[in-house]
Amino acid sequence: MGRLDRQAQKHGGAEADEWDVVDVEPGHALQGCDEGWLEPIDYGALGGRDQFVEGAAMDCALATIVFDTIYAYDAGKFPNGGPKTVADFWDVKKFPGPRALRKSPRPHSRWP
């Protein structure tokens, strides 16, 4: 059971809140492990780290959501083939038309 002392202090609590499971972003999971407010996971009790998607099993957290960014285009507008790379995606002369991205920059920060 991890103790979230910072959470309790933030809300004016004298003692730490205790939670069995908490949903946090990956950065907070790494921070919580480094600072000791999340406890290491016993992956031996779960069949080993290799039972999970590559990169999902962190020392003190387990990713529960996997997503990706896809490229899509209207094949009717580009009969000879559409954009294949991020550079192509932004080449508005070679591939004219509007672009659409998620408003948050986070999913776009690791494009190839």
UniProtKB/TrEMBL annotation:
Compositional bias of kind Basic and acidic residues: 1-14
The protein's name in its UniProt record: Uncharacterized protein
Residue segments, region Disordered: 1-20
Record lineage: Bacteria, Pseudomonadati, Pseudomonadota, Alphaproteobacteria, Rhodospirillales
Highest taxon, organism lineage: Bacteria
InterPro entries given in the database record: SBP
